[in-house]
Predict the 3D structure of the following.
Amino acid sequence: MSGGPALGKRERTKQANRAAILEAARVVFAELGFGAASVRDIVRRTDLATGTFYNYFPDKESVLRALVEESGDEARARVRAARREGATLESFVSEGFRAYFAYLLEDRDMADLLRRNAGTIRTMYDEPSVLAGTAELEEDLRDGIAAGVVPEHDTGLMAAAMVGAALEAGTRVLEGESSVDDATELLASVFVAGLRALGR
């Protein structure tokens, strides 16, 4: 039994074209940087015509946003799964950070894109995918409190602090200035101690 109706040829072509544009942009933004890259640079990496690009994206910024959102969706899923495995406060905090930092380094092209364009991407921290990650962490913190794993505290403030720290430390991991283990250990130590202090 199939998982749903098969896509028609036109829909498959549309999906393939969009994927080709995103893959080309991932490489171009990693190599040239967002500021120096042009739509023409992206299109040259595909077999598509320039006009086809504009059927999918109005400009290069929308492509970068799509890449960041796609990456953010995958990172959030992995981080949330890792957090939910945590039976102790230490594992709840540390495994979430570890999953995020490890994911950043998994896809070399995406890692290079994030590293090369860190300043531009920082301006996107109010994007829905980042805000969704903060909301999910807040929900998981509330669930952790209800389960007795996490001490009671201001979940909104703590979620914002943890996400902000992860984003900034992630930049250092991408730059090779910190390892996944070192970044995880430092942030986990800070936030576990902070949560315990708040719970007293």
